[in-house]
Automatic annotation (TrEMBL), chain A:
Keywords: Cell membrane, Membrane, Transmembrane, Transmembrane helix. Pfam families: BPD_transp_2 (PF02653). This is ABC transporter permease. The chain crosses the membrane at residues 12-31, 43-63, 70-91, 103-125, 132-150, 170-191, 222-240, 271-289. It is found in: Cell membrane. The keyword Transmembrane applies.
UniProtKB/TrEMBL annotation, chain B:
It is found in: Cell inner membrane; Cell membrane. Keywords: ATP-binding, Cell membrane, Membrane, Nucleotide-binding, Repeat, Sugar transport, Translocase, Transport. One of its GO terms (molecular function) is ATP hydrolysis activity. This is Ribose/galactose/methyl galactoside import ATP-binding protein. It catalyses: D-galactose(out) + ATP + H2O = D-galactose(in) + ADP + phosphate + H(+). It is a peripheral membrane protein.
Length: 326, 504
């Protein structure tokens, strides 16, 4: 008796994991090549860019925020990275007189740019109390505009081999997957083992109680959005390595995929609830779905419809778990 | 169908939550025209059975007969339609909407065009607010009311449904004597008009004043039902707790030391002016007064949540500038707030988080990471010490009974090891046994040389615990009294209502 109840609880708690396993089983029955080693790594590589973005937005949503400007931030920080990492002497170089920078410095500068952009949204949320939805909606077009101005509307190409290596493999393991794994670990520690993460939960859980309990709300909000920006910069680094050039119109709509991944993973839009593993599983669900549908030869337009249906379905199931009668 | 003696019969009701058996086959039988007390310790299942009746929960098993008909599997709306209404223990008003919108939420009066009839709503709301003698415009925003006023709105809402049975789940925990009297007047009137009421309260003196019969629950079990005038107090407590509770106010005389907190001419542009007092080490300093006297606001200003418009706060002789709660916590202050749900608990987070959130700095190890193991140990120790009833420390706090939530909040602030602790209605909604435990803890803090500032609307508590009592009225101090045997409830009421004033 008690046992069957426990099983029920486990299924409801890890429902999305079971859904993922179910999807994998069904797809690999129809298309056995899905389970090939190469394809699995392929799915993970493809998931890594919005997966990394999903980590950032998970924290933001836990703190009862949202960030719609993630895609624009990926484009802008990607352009910054690309402009600082062009091959010496290439034609059409953005900074012809720039001495060759070590890649590490270029990446650090990119991360700083990401943190700065995120903290602008955070600043407006914290200090003016406008809804995050509005603040980041504004930032979406501002940052996209800045990207167009910065690049003159043209893609930046001729990237250094060391940057391109980040889109490649070490041995058989794709570097994007390694970067993704490191970011997962980092976010997990930050969320569960630091004041930063605890403050995010406190703000999302009850902002008034957080205030009385001594949480520095403005600081925490700015930091959370800055973290979202940093994750965009990391995603941009992977993006530049894989695509081998950055276009000012890149990554449009990526924020929606990232938010969807987070949401599928059980992070609640009403704040205070969310996990890192949920965001990872959510990203994998979308990755497996896209890959599987492509393998099965499903039309790309129909794929979008299926994806939307899955997102809504996942949230409906999740809501019932949290707010059922009884 | 034969005419039953009872308006409501709830028979052999069981209710299980994951990991918790909240009700284990309880019975509740309510006659027409009666005020029926339901008493029991925190977590006994009083709110749970109320919610079962109201259609908020569906009982796992059992039988509900209301008005001669068996009722199964119904919704809140259906319960309201067959004549049940409820005053909820935990207020959750829509703070940004008006009083009337809150009162008529989900049952707004309609015009014949199917739009909301605002004019009728104002009239109706006015009528019911008048019944509870709340003199405010029904269009006032909920957020602009005090807790007591919100409670009166909730009462007005419940009676406005013309129910046959009204469940009142701790309606008076946020009220002072005057409003309690008002409520009792309404209840007597309702009873004479044929309404029955279930009255849940931890204030046992009230039980005898207003109720006809008493049912006692303990740990989800039904203990018994007696006529109120045939059940002596000590017997009732014994039924509730299963043992005798002595010494409600275990006040030990502590050595009173130097003044630690000194407040001089503290003013707030809206709520109070020129408040001066000091609190000494080892002292329990009570603050009494009617609702709206500005007591909560004074301590929230000292704690940096509200901004002062003038005056000085000193700690250990040194002036301090406290701009927010972080400054306050850093300088050794703790504040247990009055509105548990609004700015106390983090409902969707677990007991561990709720217990340790204000003391997080104390759990950060040398690597800058949170020491989860220590959090687990400390939480376990405190919930055992304070006696929080829960299956585990990872339970979400929203699933605890109201009184147990309050105990977790007490633990939260004890953990910060404060030098001075402000307690705003610390035992609101807490049962007799736990109350005496919390009083013991307060006494222990004082005996360690800490300062305790306690606001309470329960005069026996103020008089039983305090060394000195400050009384406030309409934002001003009317007296600071040594709590000797000369001090009586009447005297405090005279200060609170302005008949006496030492500062004129
Ligand atoms: N939704 C829920 N999920 C899990 N457990 C619950 C839930 N609601 C109540 N409980 C548990 O059921 C028991 C009874 O709770 P209930 O709120 O009815 O107590 P109560 O008698 O009203 O106490 P109090 O005087 O503190 O208000 C408690 O142990 C509580 O933790
Ligand atoms: Mg209760």
């Amino acid at each position: 008796m008690a046992n069957s109840k426990q099983i029920k609880q486990t299924i409801s708690k890890y429902g999305i994991v079971f859904a993922l396993i179910g999807m994998i089983i069904i797809i690999s029955i129809i298309r056995p090549q899905f389970l090939s080693y190469g394809n699995i790594l392929n799915v993970m590589t493809q998931s890594s860019i919005y997966g990394i973005m999903a980590l950032g937005v998970t924290l933001i949503i836990i703190a009862k925020g949202i960030d719609l400007s993630l895609g624009s931030m990926v484009a802008f920080s990607g352009l910054v990275l690309a402009s600082l990492s062009q091959v010496g002497g290439a034609a059409g170089k953005m900074y012809p007189n720039l001495p060759e920078l070590p890649l590490v410095l270029a990446i650090l500068a990119t991360l700083a740019v990401g943190a700065f952009m995120g903290s602008i949204s955070g600043f407006f949320v914290a200090k003016t109390h406008i809804p995050a939805f509005i603040a980041t909606l504004g930032m979406t077009t501002i940052v996209r505009g800045a990207a167009l101005i910065y690049s003159g509307g043209k893609p930046i190409t001729n990237l250094k081999p060391s940057l391109l290596a980040l889109g490649g493999n070490i041995g058989i393991i794709p570097v994007p997957v390694i970067i993704y794994a490191v970011m997962i670990l980092l976010t997990w520690v930050l969320l569960n083992y630091t004041r930063f993460g605890s403050d995010a939960f406190a703000i999302g859980g009850n902002i008034h109680a957080a205030e009385v309990s001594g949480v520095n709300i403005a600081k925490a909000q700015i930091l959370v959005f800055a973290f979202g920006g940093v994750m965009c910069a990391v995603a941009a680094t992977v993006f530049a390595g894989r695509v081998q050039s950055v276009h000012p119109g890149a990554a449009v709509g990526y924020e929606l995929t990232a938010i969807a991944a987070t949401t599928i993973g059980g992070t609640s839009q009403s704040g205070g609830i969310g996990t890192v593993w949920g965001a990872v599983v959510g990203a994998l669900v979308l990755g497996v779905l896209r890959n599987g549908m492509t393998l099965m030869g499903i039309d790309a337009y129909w794929q979008q419809i299926a994806e939307g249906a899955i997102i809504i379905g996942a949230v409906v199931i999740d809501m019932r778990k949290h707010a059922g009668k009884k | 169908m034969g005419q039953s003696e009872y308006l409501l019969e709830m028979l052999d009701i069981t209710k299980e939550f994951p990991g918790v058996k909240a009700l284990k086959g309880v019975t509740l039988q309510i006659r027409p025209h009666e005020i029926h007390a339901l008493v029991g310790e925190n977590g006994a299942g009083k709110s749970t059975i109320s919610k079962c009746l109201m259609g908020i929960y569906t009982p796992t098993s059992g039988k509900i007969i209301f008005d001669g008909e068996e009722r199964t599997n119904y919704t809140i709306k259906e319960a309201m339609a067959f004549g049940v209404s409820m005053i909820h223990q935990e207020l959750s008003p829509v703070r940004d909407r008006s009083i009337m919108s809150n009162m008529f939420l989900g049952r707004e009066p309609m015009t014949k065009y199917g739009t909301i009839d605002w004019k009728k709503m104002v009239e109706e709301a006015k009528k019911w607010l008048k019944q509870v003698e709340l003199e405010v415009d029904p269009r006032t925003r909920m957020a602009d009311l005090s807790v007591a006023q919100m409670q009166m709105v909730e009462i007005a809402r419940a009676i406005s449904t013309n129910a046959k049975l009204i469940i009142m789940d701790e309606p008076t925990s946020a009220l002072t004597e005057r409003e309690v009297e008002q409520l009792f007047k309404i209840m007597r009137k309702l009873r004479s008009e044929g309404t029955s009421m279930v009255y849940i309260s931890h204030k046992l003196d009230e039980i005898y004043k207003i109720t006809d019969r008493i049912s006692v629950f303990r740990d989800g079990e039904y203990i018994g039902t007696e006529d109120s005038d045939k059940l002596p107090l000590d017997r009732m407590i014994q039924m509730m707790v299963g043992r005798e509770v002595k010494d409600m106010f275990p006040k030990v005389q502590c050595k009173i030391g130097e003044p630690f907190l000194e407040v001089e001419d503290l003013s707030h542009s809206k709520f109070f002016k020129n408040v001066s007092f000091d609190v000494r080490r080892g002292e329990i300093f009570g603050i009494a007064g009617l609702v709206g006297a500005g007591r909560t606001e004074v301590i929230e200003t000292i704690f940096g949540i509200l901004g002062k418009s003038g005056g000085v706060v000193k700690l250990a002789g040194k002036e301090v500038n406290i701009r927010n709660s972080r400054d306050a916590i850093k300088s050794g202050m703790a504040l247990l707030t009055e509105e548990r749900r609004h700015n106390g608990i983090f409902p969707i987070l677990d007991i561990r988080f709720n217990t340790t959130v204000a003391n997080l700095q104390g759990y950060i190890n040398k690597f800058g990471l949170i020491d989860k193991k220590k959090i687990k140990e400390d939480t376990d120790e405190y919930i055992r010490m304070i006696g929080v009833k829960t299956p585990s420390a990872t339970q979400l706090i929203q699933y605890l009974s109201g009184g147990n939530q309050q105990k977790v909040l007490v633990a939260r602030w004890l953990l910060t090891q404060p030098e001075i602790i402000f307690l705003d209605e610390p035992t609101r909604g807490i049962d007799v046994g736990a109350k005496s435990e919390i009083h013991k803890l307060i006494g222990k803090l004082a005996s360690q040389g800490k300062c305790v500032v306690m606001i309470s609307s329960e005069l026996p508590e103020i008089m039983g615990m305090s060394d000195r009592i400050m009384v406030m009225r309409e934002g001003e101090v009317t007296g600071i009294l040594d709590n000797t045997t000369n001090v009586s409830q009447e005297m405090l009421m005279e200060y609170a209502s302005g008949v006496r004033n030492d500062y004129q």
